[in-house]
Amino acid sequence: MNVGIVCYASVGGSGILATELAKSLADRGHEVHLLSADPPFRLGEYQPGLCFHRVNTPAYPLFREPQYLISLATRIVQVAREFKLDIVHAHYAVPHATAAYLAKQIMLASSDVQRVPRIITTLHGTDITLVGSDRSYSETVAFSIAQSDGVTAVSESLKADTYRTLAVERDITVIPNFLDCKVHRRVYNPALRARYCPPGCEKLVMHVSNFRPVKRARAVVEVFARIAEQVPSRLLLVGDGPDLGDALDTARRLGVHGRVEALGEQDQVLALLSIADLFLLPSEQESFGLAALEAMACEVPVIASRVGGLHEVVEHGVTGFLHVPEDLAGMGESGIRLLRDPEMHRSFAAEGRAAVKDRFCADLVVPMYEQFYEQLVGERTAER
Predict the structure, then answer these.
(1) Is residue 184 part of a domain?
(2) Rounded distance between C-alpha atoms, residue 273 and residue 153, angstroms
(3) What's the whole-model pTM score?
(4) CATH number of the domain where residue 135 is located
(5) Which phi and psi (to 5°) does residue 176 adopt?
(6) In 3D, which of 299, 255, 292, 303 has the Cα closest to residue 274?
């Protein structure tokens, strides 16, 4: 099958999932064409069956803003025609679902309507709960979703949020995020651990994100400060974004700055997760929680907010602990319990890894997308 995948290149769950799906589909024999403004984060080295197409957006003095939507729609049309795409899979509703709809209308108006691909939109989270709910965008987003040939969401929570937030009545299929479980696993590296957890440091706590406000970076440090009062430990902040400076200022204010290290954006986080003892994710909202899933795959228990789809990933009292976002004291106490009880920690680590293997491995989830594609392509064939 010839598949076009549209995504953002920047760090974030939607781009990571789209890129991993593209790579997995190529591994399974499909021809995959990835469209974005830049090579996506984690695209990696050349892979047979996978081709990247850059979306160039020229700047004209007449336009107040770069016209990415128009240039993306045009690029979709070009790639779809050149490579006879069966599917165009738009990840993140804004503006990708709209661009895919516009591209489809352009192709339907052409003389060769037999080669118009089916349009799938995958909803990831803030494209619905934050951007899509803005009145400046909401009607266009709802229309673009409704006009897609198929729609998926990464969690039951996000599916419910979409129905509640937008005037959408169409079917939405839940297909969760996934990991390559052969790659996402704990790999012991004592030398790396010793670098970040020198003598006097017993435990390593970690947070990975793009440090946007929704991730509550200040809360990460506040929870860690409570843990550090009871357990000699250090905090690694992995990633970059607008709130990283605020997190470091909070560490100074709370007197734990010497125990906090910011590592910036990292293309590969598995080596770092493999040396961690605890993962913090006190987000304001998470429609799935891919970072938590990656931590669990590396046998790292998770302390997180009970919001959105996180309860579909982290099982409270089994693979981690979930608290209401305001309960930073409770998060700290749960972290201390886990780090002080080796038997509990081993159990949570093992259960987390087992949960990922049972439900979220690529060889379980990617076939769900393939089946979804085949169903929609079959419907197009029946319509002719």
Answers:
(1) no
(2) 27
(3) 0.91
(4) 3.40.50.2000
(5) -75, 165
(6) 299
Confidence bin at 57 (pLDDT 50/70/90): confident
Length of the chain: 384
Could you report the per-residue pLDDT of 110-159, keeping only the tens digit for each?
A: 866 668 999 999 999 877 766 666 778 888 889 999 999 999 999 999 99
The C-alpha atoms of residue 326 and residue 330 are separated, in whole angstroms, by 9
Tell me the residue type at 25: L
Any idea which residue has 């004209």 for tokens? 60
Specify whether 123 is located in the same domain as 212.
Answer: no
CA distance 340 to 350: 17
Omega into 95 within 30° of 0, i.e. cis?
Answer: yes
**Measuring CA to CA, which residue among 300, 304, 324 is closest to residue 314?**
304
Q: What is d(CA 215, CA 124) in angstroms, rounded to the nearest whole number?
A: 15
Q: b/e per residue, 128-162, with b = 16+ CB within 10 A?
A: bbbbbbeeebbebbbebbbbbbbbbbbbebbbebb
Amino acid at 271: A
- Tell whether 149 and 64 lie within a shared domain: yes
Q: Cα separation of 17 and 10, whole Å?
A: 12
Q: How big is the CA angle at 10 (ends 20 and 209), to the nearest 5 degrees?
A: 85
Residue 132: domain span = 2-178+361-383
Measure Cα distances from 103 to 85, 113, 115, 146, 149 in Å: 12, 12, 12, 15, 13
In a domain, residue 185? The reply is no
User: What residues are paired with 303 via a beta bridge?
Assistant: 280, 321
